[in-house]
Amino acid sequence: MEKPVIVPYEGQNMIGILHVPDKSMHNAWVIMVHGIGDTKSENHRMFVKIARRLAKKGIGSLRIDLLGYGDSEGEFEDMTISGQIDQTIACVNWLRENDSHNCTIGLLGYSLGGCVCACAASRAENIKSLVLWSPVSDPYWNMLHYMGEEEFLKGIRGEVMCTPDGDALKGNFFKELNDIDPIRELKSYKEPVLLIHGTLDEGVLPINAYRYKEAFVNHLSKVHFVEGASHRYDNLEHEKELLDFTEEWFTKYLI
Q: Which terminal residue of the chain, N or C, has fewer Cβ atoms less than 10 Å from its own Cβ?
């Protein structure tokens, strides 16, 4: 069963899709966090596809639009990474309150959502497994690379700037960039981490994967490179490899 749900956060509503598997199988869930400028479906519906795969394995999923994205309330221009981390933790708490206090939860984050999930997994309680797709490791440098120097410097000066996707973004996003450090935070996360990255990723360069690898604590953690894949995994073979490894990982380490 797939159904829309509302997750409240500080007086505003985040809209999500809950993928509910056969309850008799497992009590495990994955919360999926999209990248900057994306939504709960993700590029070529990657989140939809992996959620349906996991449901067949008895693992439920919550695909969420963070505030200012997709169908959720809020404005994109007010977005901050710290706010997204808090919203992700709010989704963890909501899922436990509405399903079961004893449910097992994993996180899946893509691009900037990978940075968000790395921090949220370290701050939230009992996140059993973490999967990162092409994650941002250094928000300041990665956002400069993504936005270009001219627009990035507008944000640094506190001006409203325009992202490559055509969204307005205010200076509050930029004020905290040097304070967000997913590598430092992930060093306190003790559970297994799977990181998947394309070798031809020009949006979030593969060097980010090596920075994350240095922070892994659990010896079961691993980095898997998809040879020839771009940031969006917009090739059927690359997408299949991404989804296959993710499904296998959560089936092994979340159930």
A: N
Is 161 part of a structural domain of the chain? no
Q: What is the DSSP string of 41-100?
A: T-GGGHHHHHHHHHHHTTEEEEEE--TTSTTSSS-GGG--HHHHHHHHHHHHHHHHHHT-
pLDDT > 70: what percent of the chain? Answer: 98
Evaluate whether residue 247 is within a structural domain: yes
Question: Which of 253, 186, 246, 194 lies closest to 217, judged by CA?
Answer: 186
Give the CATH number of the domain where residue 31 resides: 3.40.50.1820
Taking Cα atoms as reference points, which of 83, 99, 95, 77 lies closest to residue 32?
A: 95
Q: How many domains does the chain have?
A: 1
Is 158 contained in some domain? Answer: no
CB 82 within 8 A of CB 6: no
pLDDT tens-digit map of 57-79: 999 999 999 999 999 999 999 99
